[in-house]
Amino acid sequence: MTFRLFDAPLREPSQFVGFAGNTIDRQSETRADDSVEQALADAATRLLLMHGGRLYLKLDGDSFDPWFAAPESQPFKVSLDQGVLLGFSDAGPVLAVPAGIEPEELPETVKAIDYRSVYMQGLIDEAAAGALAQGAALLAWHASHAFCSKCGNRSEMRAGGYRRHCPACGTDHFPRTDPVAIMLTVTADKCLLGRGRHFGPGMYSALAGFIEPGETIEAAVRRETLEEAGIRLGRVVYHASQPWPFPYSLMIGCFGEPLNDDIQADLNELEDCRWFSRDEVRLMLDRTHADGLITPPKGAIAHHLIRAWVDSE
């Protein structure tokens, strides 16, 4: 029996999904409590400005520039003391910083664009999109965890934004990442796709759900597929993962093997759920389906799951 590690591709599938191009050196073992202050003293430091789920982008001709120097960020009511140190790029330190100015108050040379649109429209390069995912997740966690969950007192940011410390009871809190299983149930010639009520017109996607405490990834894949579609799964294999800053999730993509065909969809969760042939899914990927049905955009891990199966003939 061959060892799977040595049969794996040199670039794993996770490297090709949206938000996965982060090249920042995080230096996680050397973050000091004053690392943000040290970074702000460096003229080479670059900032990502974020507010209300939007990234501020400077117009640069026909392109967008997400990077701000510390001095040029001041008109945007930034809270530098609430910034987080993402790490270090070849150009210098990188911070994500909450801004206070509302989108309608921005000058014409700066736009505030929601994270999903930034990545779907490819407005910034892959490295910047990866930094966006890191920064957005951290800022969202700080915004929702300002108080100690043990004693209720306000906690303080430490370690450049990678820890919150409660001065009242001494408890330390660390950023959370919520694992989500996203799975494509497949046979040799068909796959299972569902449609959520919030989806755009005609879109069908892989099923997904949060992994619960005490549950393996494979068990979560089987449970969610059974709960949402009434399909029991046998073998489950991992394919790829994706950072997902909505607000701080990790999408874990898998394939599952069905043991039955009869769908019993949970219509409280889904608007529709059905089997699609390989040829029909190929048309959906190419945006040429006669009924206007489509799959998620290229950056989404669901797209990569679907594409990998379609191309596996």
UniProtKB/TrEMBL annotation:
<keyword id="KW-0520">NAD</keyword>
<dbReference type="InterPro" id="IPR049734">
    <property type="entry name" value="NudC-like_C"/>
</dbReference>
<dbReference type="InterPro" id="IPR015376">
    <property type="entry name" value="Znr_NADH_PPase"/>
</dbReference>
<dbReference type="Pfam" id="PF09297">
    <property type="entry name" value="Zn_ribbon_NUD"/>
</dbReference>
<dbReference type="InterPro" id="IPR050241">
    <property type="entry name" value="NAD-cap_RNA_hydrolase_NudC"/>
</dbReference>
<dbReference type="InterPro" id="IPR015797">
    <property type="entry name" value="NUDIX_hydrolase-like_dom_sf"/>
</dbReference>
<keyword id="KW-0460">Magnesium</keyword>
<keyword id="KW-0378">Hydrolase</keyword>
<dbReference type="Pfam" id="PF09296">
    <property type="entry name" value="NUDIX-like"/>
</dbReference>
<keyword id="KW-0479">Metal-binding</keyword>
<dbReference type="Pfam" id="PF00293">
    <property type="entry name" value="NUDIX"/>
</dbReference>
<protein>
    <recommendedName>
        <fullName>NAD(+) diphosphatase</fullName>
        <ecNumber>3.6.1.22</ecNumber>
    </recommendedName>
</protein>
<dbReference type="InterPro" id="IPR015375">
    <property type="entry name" value="NADH_PPase-like_N"/>
</dbReference>
<comment type="similarity">
    <text>Belongs to the Nudix hydrolase family. NudC subfamily.</text>
</comment>
<dbReference type="InterPro" id="IPR000086">
    <property type="entry name" value="NUDIX_hydrolase_dom"/>
</dbReference>
<feature type="domain" description="Nudix hydrolase">
    <location>
        <begin position="175"/>
        <end position="300"/>
    </location>
</feature>
<dbReference type="GO" id="GO:0016787">
    <property type="term" value="F:hydrolase activity"/>
</dbReference>
<dbReference type="InterPro" id="IPR020084">
    <property type="entry name" value="NUDIX_hydrolase_CS"/>
</dbReference>
